[in-house]
Every structure is written in structure tokens, then in C-alpha cells.
Model the fold of this input.
Amino acid sequence: MSNELARVQWNRPLGAGYHHLCLSTSEAYAGARPGQFVMLEVAQGPAPLLRRPFSIHRRLAEGGAHRGIEILFKVVGDGTARLARRDVGDRLALLGPLGRGFVWRDGYRRVYLAAGGIGVAPLVFLLEDILPQIDREASAVFLGGRGQQDLLCREEFTRMGVAVHLTTDDGSCGQQCFLTDPLEAACATKPPDVIFACGPMEMLRCVAGIAARHKVSCQVSIEARMACGLGACLGCAVEGAAEAGDKYLHVCMDGPVFEAHRLRF
Amino acid sequence: MTLEPTCPPPAPPAASPDLHVRIGSLTLRNPVMTASGTFGYGGEFRDLVDLEGLGAIVVKGLSLKPARGNPPPRIVETPCGMLNAIGLENIGVEAFIRTRLPLLRKVATPVVTNLYGTTEEEYAALAGIIDAEADIAAAELNISCPNVTCGGMAFGVNAQAAASLVRSVRRRLTKPLIVKLSPNVTDITAIARAVAAEGADAISLINTITGMAIDVETRRPQLANITGGLSGPAIRPIAVRMVWQVAGAVDLPIIGIGGILTAADALQFIIAGATAVQVGTANFINPAATLEIVHGLAAYLTRHGLAGIPDLVGRLERP
Done:
């Protein structure tokens, strides 16, 4: 874990409020795992005061040498609006890599990825990481968003040679439905070994339900408000399933990736 | 906020001034402590902060039994601050001693346990347990948490209740006793005098200020607990004022708390009358904040030709 000043390499608008940020970082991030996150200063304080959590979109390496990390974010409030205005060369305080990422198990071959909107961010990193182990022809990505502008990283997934199912709420691209429709259909005909999902809580609740119905293992990456990212503030509590007993789980320490059955949706 | 890449703990200047301070019978290597609830049980920060560079480590508030805390959402950011309603989630005093204290024993920095109960008897029982632990330097009595339904702040907003509680705890605690006051009162000096009269060794202030934020689109409170405690630089001027008032009211060491992000912030509290400070919300924003403040205090003493912190405590000049 490292607390450092990271330099902005690029910060490109992708349209519709999405941005692709690259930070040069120390070697501490060379070992970052898909699903892990960072706490990033968005502007000099004290307003906004807190760093913001972002999942790592991918690691940047050049010629085998670690260079930095990429972050995909959407402007949703004042903090992300300020981050969108950071320029090349700006230095931002960065803490990470943090949390528990996706867990890979031997025997996973057919893999479904479900990404809702900006939830796509950690799944590109994940697919790149697991690509050598999976059966590409049998695996698939399910991308969903409000409209065409919310379907990010289509090319990246296609380039990796997996089928990409597109769904939008407004029908502007792909099927007009939630991504859970084609996901459920695929699970019914060709159940995968595992589903990895990231997106809005409502979507994850549906994905977890689909996984449970088809007896498929499922890992979800979830978001929560948090102040520290370290397990100190305990602000990011979420309800665990009955097996967790009377205790809350904490997104920063126990997650952000959870086995779906461990959570109470 | 200034950070160096990878943030090594800043080295004190070559001829570093003496930063030692005394809180009752307790000597601290410097006046910078962590504020309860913002530094976990210490171990969470060991990769990021040289724990032996701190004046003292005040750990997360402990109760007799593990506490689940409040339902989420528990925090929300507000202008220059944050509201929290964690509800004193903690592993309980026995689990703390069994599982977290061993790590802290290896660190040559005084450990202060913040104690929270719902009744006088619970506080007294906690004090008894803490008093038997050689490796705990002092106890801080939390009579000021605004986020629990019974106990906590209920003891801190009434001088008689506060006095009675401190009397009960004092009987069970031979270690230094710090009482952490709530700002959610009409006259904080009345509470300060009451706990001083019952044998408190020091007073820490302020805990968070009760606040509330509403999402106007959903018309729901931003916190599941509806209200929460406001911390961060938004409350600093209130905290400095209260430290100044209490310093004029009691003859006890004061530990100033409230939105300290930098050495300059800490100095305001010291000049207002605090012997030491606690750094809270800043730990969330910059895990290395405490050590940067220690460094900044040393630099200030050097720059002003002062021999030590006591030369500065309460040395407020006329306007």
C-alpha cells in the first residue's frame, strides 16, 4: 500500500460525462489486482475534503516496465467534476492499491462479465488478466447502459475475442432491455463457471439473483461512500447475508469485490 | 496538503526542538495524538505512518461488548467537513486487548483507549479492565458521541451526570483519565469544571457537532441515523473558541481537537490553551497528516526561537 503523489499523464473526456484518466505511479501498483481500488485526491482541499474511491481500470506498462494506472470515471458530483478538470502534469495524492479484488479459481473456463454503465471500469482489467485462462469462445461480456453513450470499452472487449452483448434502456444501441435479460437467457442455456459483475446496486441484485437461480458462482464489485479506504472510518458498512452474523461488512476491507451470496441485497 | 512521492515520514529538522509535553503523569514525545475513531486500532496505518513518530495513539472507542454500529449510509461529505453516524462500531474491549493490543505493544508510543458505555456501571467496568492492562497508558472517556441512543453524549451534556460518571470511573482507574467533551452544550466550561472537580487528569475537546444533511431530490436524510457528527475544518473555529474558553475555566491540561489538517491548525489550538492536539478527519484525507504536523510544529518552534511547546501553550496575544 502506498500513499504518494501521482502525476496526471492524460485526462481525456469520452463524452457523456465519462473520462479516462491515467496516473503515473510508483511500483506499488505493479502488483495491483483487478477489482482493487484507490483513494484519489480530486482537488486541493479543503473543499471537497475527502479523497474519492475509484476502481483501477487497468495498469499501464511500457516495455514490461510499470508506468501507472488508468481510471475510468463518470462526473456525478462536485468531486468528479473537479477531477475532470485536472490537467496533464498535475499531481494528485493517491492511496492504494486497496481492498480485495476479484478472486480467480482453477477450473474457471466459461466466464460471463456483467457491466452496468461505469461499472465496466474494473472489468477490462479483469478480462485482460484472466484472458489466458478462459475459453474465449464460450465466454461473454454483457454491457448495459441508459443509452449508446453509456456503453464504454466495447472495442477493448471485442479485441480480446469474447462475445459482447449490448443492451440499453432507450434502445439506442443493442437490445432495449436491461443486461440481465440476455444474461439470464445465457445462464439458462449455457451456464458459466462464474459471473463477475460491477454496476449499480439494483443491477447487481438482479445479477446475484440470476446466479443463485442457475447455481452459478458470482462475484460483485460494489460501491459505498467511504472516507479513508483503510478500515479506519468504518463509513462503508454494508449488510452481510445471514452467515455474516450480526456484523456489518466493510466495502474497503472485506470488498469491494464480494461473493454475491455473502451480501444481503 | 503537501506530500512527497511515497510519503516517507518527514525527518525532523537537524537540531530539532524538544516537542515533549506532559498530560498529567503521562509524557508524550510530541503533542500530536490521533483522534479516536479516525485511526482504527492503529495497525490499519502501520504501512503508512511511523507509529513511533506519534505523541500517542488513541484507538477507536471501545465498549464492554462488541457493537454493530448504525445502519448505512453512515457518512456524507459536507462543505469542508463530513457527517458521520458510525454508531461506535467496535470489536469490544476484550477482543481489542486480545487481538489488537499485541501489535501496539511493539510500538514505543503510548496507547490511549477511548471508552464508551451506556451506563455508569459499564464505564466503570471498562475502566477496571483498562486499569489492569500494563500496556495501556491512559483512558479517554467518551461522554460526547452524538450517534448512539443511550449513553455517550447523554453524560456529556449535563454537568451533574458528567461529574457522577467521572467519579465512578475515577474510583476504578489509576491511569491518567482524559474526559472528551461534547460541543453540543450551552456552556462547555460548566461541564469542564464539573469533570475537573471529580479528578479528571485532562480534558479533550471537541467531539463532533451534531448535524444533518438532506437529499432534496428524495427528501431523505443523507444518513440512515438522520443526524450525525460534523467533523473536519468546518468545525475548527468553534473548537478553537471552546478550547480557549475551557483553558480559562480549568487548571488542567487540554487536548485540542477539531478539524486540524496542518501544523498551523494545531498551533491555533496550542496558542488558545491546548497542551496537545488530536488529529482526526485529516487521517482519512492524508494518512501521513499526523507526522507532517509534528514536523511543522518543530519547524515553527525553531523559527520562533522557542524551547518547547509549553512556551506556547495559552500564549495568546491581545487583539
Chain B touches chain A through 42 residues (CB under 8 Å). Confidence is low (pLDDT under 50) at residues 1-5 of chain B. Chain B has one domain: 21-311. The two ends of chain B are 29 Å apart (CA to CA).
